[in-house]
Amino acid sequence: MKVRTAIEQLIMIILGILSAGMGLKGFLLSSHFIDGGVTGISMLVADITNLPISILIFVINMPFIFLAYRRLGLSFAIKSAAAIAGLSLCLAFLNYPDVTHDKLLTAVFGGFFIGVGIGFAIRGGAVLDGTEIAALLVSKRFQLFKVNDIILLLNVIIFSAAMFFLGVESALYSILTYLSASKMIDFILNGIEQHTGITVVSGKGEEIRKAITDMGRGVTVYEGKSGYGKDGYVNDTRDIIFTVATRLEIPSIKQKILDIDPSAFIVQHSIDDTTGGLLRRKGHH
Which in 113, 190, 210, 275 has the greatest CB count within 10 A? Predict the structure, then answer.
């Protein structure tokens, strides 16, 4: 099983390298558009100095890989260093077709291929861009800032520099590239079946539990009391139902709940990943 997992991760990383290489050489580099993060910094420096992008991507990422080794472990650091080295070699020696000179298509599909590449690499247990490593470490040191806040700040600086060195139009297309890449990373990591947690507070908990389980979803039932009112708890014990569903199943589940209890209190929140437990009853289709 470990060998199979290792092979699957290797395939993911190789596909990620090839896809990111396509996004860079097949679309962005010839149009002087950049992406965000360390990849964007490398592209911007390459454009300004005429140094090879293949060397810059490797060199600029290495300090972040060293930090990853110290904080996230040797295995992750080795796989990430190998993946970034593979991308550098890919950019140096593989010939990709210059697909289109249309600026909009270049920005959107350049970001598409880079996002797919980064997403596959992450699923393979590595990174092709050290931005999130840096953001994670900074957020741990300065807890006032979240990872997303640091990534956003870094990209604001990068695209501001791009506006100065490359011009307003190239910078704006570069932002579109970044948004396209970000969307694809999210899609590759979470997929169309990204899970959502649903918590339901209702006086008709048993009926709701049965309706959800009849749809094939597993549920967890808590017992709660209403905390509303100036006197604190009132004698109003009710069930709290928790279930996990994909985004495509959310509308039908919510409709079932509201058909049973139109006044039910429903809370939804995104879930990045799930492990173990019973999400769906076996044999339900």
Answer: 113
